[in-house]
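Worked problem 6 (solution included).
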Amino acid sequence: MRAPAVVAALSLAACAAPPAVPPQPPAAAPAAAAPAAAAPVAAEPPAAEPPEAAPAPRVVFTLEDYKRRFAGRIVASGAKTFHEALPPAMKSIVVLYIRVDRHGHPLRVAVFRSNGDRLLEERAVASVIGAMPLPAPPDALLDDTDSLSFLETFLFRDDGLFRVRSLVP
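Solution. The predicted structure is:
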């Protein structure tokens, strides 16, 4: 009864892939005690030059890209934000008009739209001021006065914490 089991095991083992053997480095030639003269070495043919790499794709920096960097700066500054999913209803939505110079310094931060909750309006404005230094906008986004104007929305939930709309997926 053992013979058929042994034959079956050997047959299966013969079908298995050979074990992987790591490549061995070439054996080093023993160092000569003191070579009389350096033996000539055949020169390797020059390596073919790699094909020219395709130019890197041009990165387009849009207003939405800037607003995400701007919003990220507000979050990084320690503003009272939340990161969980948005609740079904918000306590307040505050839209700010923001104008920054070429260096990211705020020239104007004003409430553009709100439901009238003054405390939350002030918190939104203070979060922009408290996030300085703000990122400098790229030259391509600057207007003829060397500044950038945009609207940003602050979404407040019942506990007064907020999310900046540009960071909401």
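Discussion: The two ends are 67 Å apart (CA to CA).
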